[in-house]
Amino acid sequence: QVHLVESGGGSVQAGGSLRLSCARSGDIFRLVAMGWYRQAPGKQRELVAQVTAGQSTNYGDSVKGRFTISRDNAWNTVSLQMSSLKPEDTAVYYCNVRGYSDPTRWQDYWGQGTQVTVSS
Predict the structure, then answer these.
(1) 10 conformational bin, left if phi > 0, alpha if psi -120 to 50, beta if neither
(2) Closest CA to 34 of 66, 67, 4
């Protein structure tokens, strides 16, 4: 079973930067991707950034050019460097791991979330 713990959230002024980190523990048969999602009050959860097993990356349109995702080779850590932060980036950010528990079944694993607040 995969366990995820986020860190690095906090409060920052618009234009500032934050780095979020997610530590993974527990084993899994096959890891597919790691990433970050966020959810603001009254809004749906949305993809922020994702890095796949092939090291390709995907970013939400609203964060392209401002955020950068990375992971280590052992899949133990995934980080999100956030720059030029805007008030609309305010949300709870969730670490996500997608993987196969066996060759036929996959599922998403989630961290508890970390709050990011950007003030104008």
Answers:
(1) left
(2) 4
How many angstroms separate the CA atoms of 7 and 65, rounded? 22
pLDDT digit string (tens) for the chain, length 120 residues: 899 999 999 999 999 999 999 999 998 889 999 999 999 999 999 999 999 988 899 999 999 999 999 999 888 999 999 999 999 999 999 999 999 988 999 999 999 999 999 999
Q: Retrieve residue 5's tokens.
A: 């713990």
Ramachandran angles phi, psi of 70, nearest 5°? -155, 155
- State the CB neighbour count (10 A cutoff) for residue 49: 25
Report d(CA 73, CA 8) in Å as an integer.
21
Side-chain half-sphere CA neighbours of 40 within 13 A: 10
In whole angstroms, give the CA distance from residue 32 to residue 52: 6
For the chain, the first-to-last Cα distance in angstroms comes to: 40
